[in-house]
Specification:
Oligomer: single chain
Distance between the termini: 21 Å
Order of helices and strands: HHHHH
Helix content: 55-70%
Number of helices: 5
CATH topology: Four Helix Bundle (Hemerythrin (Met), subunit A)
Number of domains: 1
Largest sheet: none
Strand content: under 5%
Radius of gyration: 16 Å
Number of strands: 0
CATH architecture: Up-down Bundle
Shape: globular
C-alpha cells in the first residue's frame, strides 16, 4: 500500500477522508428521525459525552495549527505524545468512532452498526497511511508506535 507515489498516496488519503465523512453523514441520516422524536437511548448519550470529552482533551494537546483532517502530516507539524496521545496514537479517530457509535446505537438496528464497521475500516486504513507518513517525518515515531496502541489504550 505504501510503495506507490506521493501523489497517489495523497489521492488515497483524500478518498479516505471523503469516505469517512460520507459514512458519518449516512449514520446521521439514519439516526436523525429518532433523534427528532426524542427516542435516544441513554447509552447513546454516554457515548456522545465520552466522544466530546476525548475530543476536547485531544484538542488541548494537539493545537489546531498542528491538526489535520488529511492523513498527511503538516510540513511543520510537531509530534505530540502527551495527554491522550500517551495512551493512544489516534485519539481523534477514537473520538470519531465513539461519536459514530452514539449515532449507530440510536436506530437500534444493524444498518447503523454496518456503517460503523465500515467507518472503522476506513479509519484503520487512514491511520495506516498516516503512520507511514509520520515515520517519514518523525524518526522517533516508530518507537512511539511500539509502546502505544492505535485506537484503544492497552488493547488496539
Amino acid at each position: 500500500m505504501f510503495l506507490f507515489s506521493p501523489q497517489l498516496r495523497a489521492r488515497t488519503g483524500s478518498m479516505l477522508v471523503l469516505l469517512q465523512f460520507g459514512l458519518l453523514t449516512a449514520l446521521g441520516v439514519l439516526a436523525l428521525p429518532l433523534v427528532l422524536q426524542g427516542q435516544v437511548a441513554p447509552v447513546s448519550w454516554v457515548l456522545l459525552a465520552l466522544s466530546g470529552l476525548l475530543g476536547g482533551w485531544t484538542l488541548l494537546h494537539n493545537r489546531l495549527g498542528n491538526f489535520n483532517i488529511h492523513p498527511e502530516p503538516k510540513a511543520h507539524g510537531v509530534l505530540v505524545t502527551s495527554g491522550p496521545y500517551r495512551l493512544m496514537r489516534h485519539p481523534m479517530y477514537s473520538t470519531v468512532l465513539l461519536g459514530a457509535a452514539a449515532l449507530a446505537s440510536v436506530p437500534h438496528h444493524w444498518p447503523g452498526w454496518l456503517l460503523w464497521l465500515a467507518l472503522l475500516g476506513a479509519l484503520l486504513a487512514k491511520s495506516m497511511l498516516e503512520e507511514h507518513w509520520l515515520r517519514e517525518h518523525h524518526p522517533q515515531y516508530a518507537g512511539y508506535c511500539a509502546r502505544c496502541k492505535r485506537f484503544v489504550p492497552w488493547v488496539f
